[in-house]
Amino acid sequence: MTDPLLFDIAEVLIASDRLQERVGELARAIDRDYAALRPVLVGVLRGSVYFLVDLSRQLRIPHEIDFMAIAAYGTRHATTGAVRLLKDLEDEVTDRHVLLVEDIIDTGLTASYLVRLLRARRPASLAICTLLDKRTRRIAEDLPIRYVGFEIPDRFVVGYGLDFRQLYRNLPFVGVLREEVFND
Ligand code: IMP
User: Fold this and answer.
1) 108 lines ligand 1 (CB under 6 A)
2) Among 17-26, 76-85, 106-115, where is mean pLDDT lowest?
3) Is position 106 annotated as part of the catalytic site?
4) Cβ of 107 below 6 Å from ligand 1
5) What percent of the chain has pLDDT over 90?
6) Of 30, 23, 87, 106, which Cα lies nearest the Cα of 62?
7) Closest Cα partner for 26 from 101, 108, 138, 104?
8) Among 8, 54, 103, 106, the one annotated catalytic
9) How many angstroms does the Cα of residue 19 sit away from the middle of ligand 1?
10) Residue 46: pLDDT band by 50, 70, 90 thresholds?
11) Number of helices (H) and strands (E), helices first, in the chain?
12) How far apart are CA 16 and CA 88, in angstroms?
């Protein structure tokens, strides 16, 4: 059966096998850099879940996972970086090696808020691993981004965890939404 959501996709930007291949490459780099450090992968609900789970499955080193949930104030077009914490981590991260796993960094304001929040807890180290990076849109500077899956142009993308009005997260690829759907 054809997924009805596929009709809303104008273009596939990153195919499923390329995503999985790149996740494997990131996992190998993290294996190397964090061997024996038992890092905590911190995912931000809900977008990063798909990426984080695939990354975790491909890691060979001992590691933990934990989640935070946030709600951004304002709309996508007027991001202020003001964020409300809806769910905190289950475990303490003081003296732990924390890897913040993001689906996408756009302006970077959300990540900047999360970095401030996590740094206040005095982790042994804090770095960011983001699947997608819309670098041309960056406002926040000095983010500790250590791993980037793909740099992408300034287009609104969905799939592999990324949503538009809570749909399309389950698509196995990253794609661009048709204009008509986006402007509806
Ligand atoms: P930032 O604070 O501007 O870096 O963006 C944070 C959030 O905006 C991301 O975590 C996503 O939830 C959302 N976002 C930004 N660009 C896109 C996109 O192209 N597709 C879907 N969500 C996006």
Assistant:
1) yes
2) 76-85
3) yes
4) yes
5) 84
6) 30
7) 101
8) 106
9) 18
10) very high
11) 4, 9
12) 31
